[in-house]
Amino acid sequence: MRVLGIETSCDETGVALYDGERGLLAHAVYSQIPIHAEYGGVVPELASRDHVRKALPLIRQVLDEAGLTREDIDAVAFTAGPGLIGALLVGAALGRSLAWALGVPAVGVHHMEGHLLAPLLEDSAPDFPFVALLVSGGHTQLVDVTGVGRYRILGESLDDAAGEAFDKTAKILGLPYPGGPALSRVAEQGDPTRYRFPRPMTDRPGLDFSFSGLKTFALNTLREAEAEGGGGIDAQTRADIARAFEEAVVDTLVIKCRRALRETGRRRLVLAGGVSANRRLRARMGEALAAEGGEAHYPRPELCTDNGAMIAYAGWQRLAAGASEPLLFKPRARWPMEALAPLTPAIETEM
């Protein structure tokens, strides 16, 4: 079964074709960064309009790359939530309409389930069960995964998601949009010993996160440095603050993930979402888990950010199990992942 996947939950238009026998055939992503950079963040109305402009050309591009036509599509999967409701409506209306016109089934996919399952597209895909760290601009969650659709939330951010904290701190430091990648680039030049930020909520039991305080700590550190410098800071001080912030976020995520693996008895950890592409996080997490006999699994960097491949694959999983979307579809800006129907039997034992 060949599934066309359409992702339009925020500011990236993603389209992909996934074949149940041959794997990922083709995928393409159009990023709206140049549009939103002028405003320092995503403008929902502009995001929706650009999805309207770019979705159909991307579908044609992906079909051409795969050497297929619309008649070769067996089903359509689209992101039904969570996300910006206007952006979701574009992809959902296009996906459901295309499926109706072709006479094939359609299914709405949970955006975070797409991220969670993205590492299964790799040759080194982990077996169930595992713990997943979903870490992006909108979500930071630890999930115990025992099968497709069998998700138990272990902990999540009580305020800012990790990616959101990256973006806000980058803005405080005067870095360009998108802030997270810009902050990580600057942090490479930072002195890791000059400043030390707190590791929030690591000194108490539990698996929840809180990153808003790190943003405030960065702001106060910046103001103190500006006062010492007579009203400004040099590039090195900016890099040192960025490095201290990134180190604090990475350490916090590593501590919580190790704790989650110990509490669940799992050995495998999956990292997914935009922040999972962070090189410092990957290196630190890999070292920490290897020292304890654990494994860390990631999707390739291009599948960490929002993309159509993860939606096509998650859709294929649900379509193969008999799920489908009626003509009356319902995108959801908010959608708890635990509400998803399980598709496979729970696997509790490590292989």
Automatic annotation (TrEMBL):
GO terms for cellular component: cytoplasm. Its main location: cytoplasm. InterPro entries: ATPase_NBD, Gcp-like_dom, KAE1/TsaD, Peptidase_M22_CS, TsaD. The lineage of its organism: Bacteria, Pseudomonadati, Pseudomonadota, Gammaproteobacteria, Chromatiales. Its EC number is 2.3.1.234. Its cofactor is Fe(2+). Belongs to the KAE1 / TsaD family. Required for the formation of a threonylcarbamoyl group on adenosine at position 37 (t(6)A37) in tRNAs that read codons beginning with adenine. Is involved in the transfer of the threonylcarbamoyl moiety of threonylcarbamoyl-AMP (TC-AMP) to the N6 group of A37, together with TsaE and TsaB. TsaD likely plays a direct catalytic role in this reaction. Fe cation binds at H111, H115, D306. GO terms for molecular function: iron ion binding; tRNA N(6)-L-threonylcarbamoyladenine synthase activity. This is tRNA N6-adenosine threonylcarbamoyltransferase. Residues 24-313 form the Gcp-like domain. Substrate binds at L134, V135, S136, G137, G138, D167, G180, N278. It catalyses: L-threonylcarbamoyladenylate + adenosine(37) in tRNA = N(6)-L-threonylcarbamoyladenosine(37) in tRNA + AMP + H(+). It is found in: Cytoplasm. Keywords: Acyltransferase, Cytoplasm, Iron, Metal-binding, Transferase, tRNA processing. GO terms for biological process: tRNA threonylcarbamoyladenosine modification. It comes from the Bacteria. PANTHER family: TRNA N6-ADENOSINE THREONYLCARBAMOYLTRANSFERASE, TRNA N6-ADENOSINE THREONYLCARBAMOYLTRANSFERASE, MITOCHONDRIAL. NCBIfam families: gcp_kae1, T6A_TsaD_YgjD. Binds 1 Fe(2+) ion per subunit.
